[in-house]
Design brief:
Layout: H1 3-6, E1 20-24, H2 32-45, E2 49-52, H3 57-60, H4 70-81, E3 85-89, H5 97-102, H6 129-146, E4 152-156, H7 171-185, H8 188-195, H9 222-250, E5 255-256, E6 258-259, H10 270-273, E7 281-283, H11 293-307, E8 313-317, H12 336-346, E9 349-354, H13 380-394, E10 402-403, E11 407-410, H14 413-419, H15 431-444, E12 450-452, E13 463-466, H16 474-485, E14 489-493, H17 515-518, E15 520-525, E16 534-535, E17 541-543, E18 547-551, E19 555-559, E20 569-576, E21 579-584, E22 587-588, H18 590-604, E23 616-622, E24 626-633, E25 639-641, E26 645-647, E27 652-654, E28 658-660, E29 665-671
Parallel strand pairs: 1-2, 1-9, 2-3, 3-4, 4-5, 6-7, 7-8, 8-9, 11-12, 11-13, 13-14, 14-21
Antiparallel strand pairs: 10-23, 15-18, 16-17, 17-22, 19-20, 20-21, 23-24, 24-29, 25-28, 26-27, 26-29
Helix pairs in contact: 6-9, 15-18
Length: about 675
């Protein structure tokens, strides 16, 4: 590579060359004698961005109105002197004890009405005017001091907003919820209509009668719960805007906060949040409660790229090894950290950062891994960190390249909220599980997808995949229908199109909003008990879900051979306008699902990057002059491939056939073809 390629400025605009390699640092946990050693080791590891002051409130403002910035001045200057950019937290993520002692009314309440007390983090109600007043005072003071500091390259608002306190049911939140509802619906009668309050004598005569969906003796109104999720997401987004407005009024430095696009956090609708960010950033940790954690990692990375509208994004946090908050916190195997990190880069990240730099010796996170572990520099983790840092520097030329795909994959936080509510046909059906199963089947056939919001523009795509989109508005459903009518292809899976945005069922037969495009109609659902399955006529098996389906123009491609619906269609294909829509009325086994999606991909003309072996991901990033093909081997065996070019990892030419080692990664630079 030439020097221009190696040191191309990062399009993230953080003042770094090439890719970002960074960490969270908590200098307040350490004596100053440790700071210089830490910065020396950061340079050795190749760190070029450090997040500080994430939990600094009690140190900066130990008493109300008494600000102490000297220590923060010192660490910022030290980092800057050593060529390391600062990602400066506003410090507002957890209030200090003096504030919660003075104002216990700002503490959050859960759905049973009990208070959650200080001693952890995020002990504040998102609607509390008292908390906001004090937080904004801190932000103003911090921005006044550092708004034009040359060391600061990024503002970090709060931290993981909504991780613990997204849903607050206190009286202050109740009042804010009513304001949100009145603004949204304008009239109380419009709300009554949307919520279906004629059911169970829930009709409201005035706004003051409405409460958050606190615990009840029976099922709670599902539309009320849905709107409370919307309100709660918007309330935290409004909080972000308040901090960001103060920062932007006095500083031109980019502003962001760290999203949590993960399997266990669902309270923020990030499609609404993403446009507010100068840089989209995400935190992701492997979840070992899942059967194959790395597949969820790939989904999270693709979803974050979707939120960034295809532009490069930043992985703000992940772990070098174990975390501290799962039932069993497994350390990563040799090479796993490298593989995880480069999977994020493959899928569009222009930087990877870790929580945290030096492993804590006190507090809740003392067993959370770090770049510098308890065992110090004579450790496997440290050696792998240094190796990764050197590679990230060599990969500087990848910065700014993008991932392209002609397959759109629809994902919705609102559908997640609505699908997982009570009193549905099966308690075994969970939205994210269906999303992951469908995504993993596409992964298995080597397809790269772009994750999009419902209603997103589908121009330029050949195939749209719509897994279990239970809740969808008429206008958003029409985007899929029009796409197919104009020549596109679609795969729509069961329990899609059932209700509108108010959680109101569309009468006339399922799948409601997608009946016309799929050319079918279902009368009733026949859920299958856990661990049971039924055979299909094409050799596959079905589980979880079946439905009494009638053909209304579609052709049947598979039927049930057993169970209550023998002979009824399980999979259909419908020519609609100039395009084709497939409907999967059941949960297919993994092989059958992959085969069905492979047929849809092939028929649509969508293109996979390259043939793959099971357990190997192949993803392409395209730059102005070169393409970069990431070959990520999650298996325990060496794998051959036919992707020729120059491997940036091993720094060797691959002439005809390459071999990626077990658990290894290759990043093959290829010259772009010119027409």
């Amino acid at each position: 590579m030439n020097s221009t390629e190696a040191h191309r400025p990062s399009p993230l605009g953080l003042g770094t060359d090439g890719l970002v390699f960074g960490c969270d640092y908590n200098p307040e946990q350490w004596g100053k004698e440790v700071w210089r050693e830490d910065v020396r080791l950061m340079r050795e590891a190749g760190v070029n961005l450090v997040a500080i002051n994430i939990f600094g409130w009690s140190h900066i403002e130990p008493r109300r109105g008494e600000f102490h910035f000297d220590d923060l001045d010192e660490i910022i200057a030290l980092l800057h002197e050593n060529g390391i950019g600062v990602n400066l937290g506003t410090g507002t993520s957890s209030p200090p004890p003096w504030l919660t002692t003075l104002h216990p009314e700002m503490l959050p309440q859960v759905s049973d009405g009990t208070t959650r007390w200080p001693g952890g983090r995020q002990a504040w109600c998102p609607s509390s005017p008292v908390f906001r007043e004090h937080a904004m005072t801190l932000v103003r003071a911090t921005v006044k001091r550092y708004g034009s500091n040359p060391a600061v390259v990024l503002w970090h608002v709060s931290n993981e907003l909504g991780c613990h306190n997204a849903l607050c049911y206190c009286d202050v939140s109740a009042a804010a919820f009513r304001v949100w509802l009145e603004r949204h619906y304008t009239s109380i009668e419009a709300l009554n209509e949307a919520w279906g309050t004629a059911f169970w004598s829930q009709h409201y005569a005035q706004w003051s009668e409405i409460l958050p969906p606190r615990d009840t003796l029976s099922f709670i109104n599902p539309s009320q719960q849905l709107d409370f999720f919307r309100f709660s997401s918007d309330e935290l987004l409004d909080y972000f805007r308040a901090e960001a407005e103060i920062i932007r009024s006095s500083s031109t430095i980019p502003v962001t906060t760290n999203f949590m696009v993960t399997a266990h956090i669902k309270t923020q609708d990030y499609w609404r949040w993403a446009p507010e960010m100068d840089i989209v950033a995400n935190d992701h940790y492997l979840d070992h409660r899942l059967s194959v954690p790395h597949r969820e990692l790939s989904f999270s990375a693709d979803a974050t790229r979707g939120l960034a509208d295809g532009k490069p994004w930043l992985l703000m946090e992940h772990s070098t090894s174990a975390v501290n908050w799962q039932p069993r916190n497994r350390a990563k195997a040799p090479g796993e950290m490298m593989r995880n990190s480069l999977t994020h880069v493959a899928r569009g990240a222009d930087g990877v950062c870790f929580f945290q730099w030096r492993a804590s010796v006190k507090g809740t996170e003392k067993f959370h891994s770090a770049m510098l572990p308890h065992s110090g520099t004579d450790s496997r983790v440290w050696r792998e960190v240094v190796e990764l840092g050197a590679l990230m520097h060599r990969l500087g030329e990848v910065a700014g390249s993008v991932v392209r795909s002609d397959i759109a994959f629809v994902f919705s936080w609102e559908a997640w909220w609505a699908t997982d509510q009570e009193a549905h046909p099966s308690t075994d059906l969970h939205y994210l599980e269906q999303v992951h199963q469908t995504y993993e089947a596409l992964l298995a056939i080597g397809a790269t997808v772009t994750i999009v919001a419902p209603g997103a523009d589908l121009t330029g795509y050949r195939l749209v995949v719509v897994p279990s989109l239970y809740l969808v508005s008429d206008s958003d459903a029409r985007v899929v229908t029009d796409f197919v009518a104009n020549g596109g292809h679609a795969v729509i899976t069961f329990f899609s199109g059932i209700v509108d945005e108010h959680d109101e069922v569309r009468p006339g037969g399922y799948p409601g909003a997608f009946r016309a495009v799929t050319g079918i109609s279902s009368e009733e659902f026949y859920p299958i008990a856990p661990h049971d399955s039924v055979a299909l006529s094409d050799g596959g098996t079905a589980s979880l879900w079946t439905e009494l389906l009638h053909l209304e123009g579609a052709e049947s491609t598979a039927t049930y051979l057993e169970g209550p619906l023998i002979g009824v269609s399980a999979v259909t294909r419908n020519v609609f306008g100039k395009g084709v829509a497939r409907y999967l009325a059941t949960s297919l086994d993994s092989i059958a699902l992959a085969e069905e999606l492979h047929r849809a991909v092939s028929e649509s003309g969508a293109v996979a990057v390259a043939p793959v072996t099971a357990g190997v991901e192949v993803v392409r990033r395209s730059g102005a002059e070169h393409d970069y093909v990431f070959v990520i081997n999650h298996t325990n065996s060496d794998v051959e491939h036919s992707i020729a070019g120059y491997d940036l990892v091993t720094e060797i030419d691959i002439v005809t056939r390459g071999v990626v080692a077990s658990g290894g990664v290759q990043i093959v630079r290829q010259k772009k073809e010119t027409s």
